[in-house]
Amino acid sequence: MPPEKDNPRAWDKSHYHLACVEDAVAKAHQICSEKGVRLTPTRLRILELIWRSHKPIGAYALLDEIKLEHKSAAPPTVYRALDFLIEHGLVHRIQSLNAFVGCNDPGHVYSGIILICNDCGDVLEMDDAKISETIALYTNNLGFQLSSQSIEANGTCPGCRG
Ligand SMILES: [Zn+2]
Ligand SMILES: [Zn+2]
Ligand SMILES: [Zn+2]
User: Fold this and answer.
1) Are the beta carbons of 46 and 85 closer than 8 angstroms?
2) How far apart are the CA of 25 and the centre of ligand 3, in A?
3) Nearest ligand, measured from the Cα of 159
4) Which pLDDT tens digit goes with each residue over 34-80?
5) Is 78 buried (19+), middle (13-18) or exposed (0-12) by CB count in 10 A?
6) Sheet with 112-117, edge to edge strand ranges
7) What domain count does the chain have?
8) CATH number for the domain that contains residue 37
9) What is the DSSP letter of 52?
10) Which residues contact 44 (CB under 8 A, 6 or more apart)?
11) How many whole angstroms from its chain centre is CA 54?
């Protein structure tokens, strides 16, 4: 059964995306102040750029965007900001695309599946603790020490199926 709490906006093509961005920025401020870490202007800007859409964006595309505003920006600027955003659960890395997407439910420990639409490129995070529990159980039984896990699934989203 699909978890109800997941953000259904991602795949509603007519949704008011500015609300997603405002939500993400507000939650980022809240999480950083709770944790006592700094959401610097660069970190915030990278987060906003990632949230331009629900499509994953690569580090070099982010660098190109940032360079329009700060000519001196270099790859470490982007990578350091990405590390920060990932560490604090604001952004996830899509391994198969080597790209980044904003988290639907910032601050949570990511456990679940990332669904990637082959048609529009949008990504939706499906969170389900059962999935990560199952993986932990299986790997543990095999004597494999798990350090991280990510599952990505490709297909066609409801919006593109029409
Ligand atoms: Zn949106
Ligand atoms: Zn997430
Ligand atoms: Zn789609």
Assistant:
1) yes
2) 24
3) 3
4) 999 999 999 999 999 999 999 999 999 999 999 999 898 899 999 99
5) buried
6) 123-127, 112-117, 151-155
7) 1
8) 1.10.10.10
9) T
10) 25, 28
11) 9
Instruction: Return the H-helix or E-strand segment holding 155.
Output: strand 151-155
124 C-alpha to center of ligand 2: Å? Answer: 9
Tell me, in angstroms, the distance from the centre of ligand 1 to residue 17's CA. 4
**Which residues, chain by chain, have CB under 5 Å from ion ligand 3?**
117, 119-120, 157, 160
In a domain, 129, yes or no: yes
Q: What is the pLDDT of residue 110?
A: 65
**Residue 78 domain-assigned?**
yes
Domain containing 128: what range?
Answer: 16-161
10-residue stretch averages of pLDDT, the chain, 162 residues long: 50 86 96 96 96 95 94 93 95 93 80 88 85 90 89 92 84
Q: How many alpha carbons lie under 13 Å from residue 92 in its C-beta half-sphere?
A: 30
Q: Which two tokens stand for residue 90?
A: 């604001």
What stretches of 21-150 adopt beta strand conformation (E)? 91-94, 99-102, 112-117, 123-127
**Quick check: is 75 in a domain?**
yes
Examine residue 8 and state whether it is found in any structural domain, yes or no: no
The residue written with tokens 């919006």 in the block is: 159
**Count of C-beta atoms within a 10 Å radius of residue 5:** 9
Backbone dihedral angles phi then psi of residue 132, each to the nearest 5 degrees: -70, -30
